[in-house]
Amino acid sequence: MTESLTYDIMSNMFLAVLIASAPILVVALAVGLFIAFFQALTQIQEMTLTFVPKIAAIFLVLLVATPLIYTTVKGLSDRVFDLIASGTV
After folding, report:
1. How far apart are CA 49 and CA 52, in angstroms?
2. What family does this chain come from, according to its entry (predicted)?
3. Angle ∠(52,56,58) on CA atoms, nearest 5
4. pTM (2 d.p.)
5. Beta strands in 21-70 (DSSP E)
6. Lowest CB count within 10 Å: 40, 55, 72, 87, which one?
């Protein structure tokens, strides 16, 4: 196993993690910003107002994005297992 192969595997892994987590993180950020603006405009400082909509949005996006996450992780594992099977790792 060469250094360049290790670097390629690690860069593919980091890219897969970013792609798999991006939809959930983007929605959590957007919902959090929307709720923060709403609280700033209305002067409502209710703690459950920040958590409940964000959790619900994350759950819905997780349901929708599960095929994307699966495809990304499966593609990475297929590449690594192919490298193992070919004897290069």
Report:
1. 6
2. Belongs to the FliQ/MopD/SpaQ family.
3. 115
4. 0.80
5. none
6. 87
CA-to-CA distance for 3 and 45, rounded, in angstroms?
A: 52
User: HSE-up of 30 (CA within 13 Å, CB side)?
Assistant: 10
Return the residue matching tokens 């594992």. 77
Dihedral sign of CA atoms 45, 49, 55, 58 in order: negative
Task: Please answer whether residues 75 and 16 qualify as being in contact, where contact means their C-beta atoms are separated by less than 8 angstroms.
Answer: yes
Question: pLDDT tens digits for 42-68?
Answer: 888 887 888 899 999 999 999 999 999
Q: List C-alpha distances in Å: 50 to 30, 58, 60, 72.
A: 12, 13, 16, 30
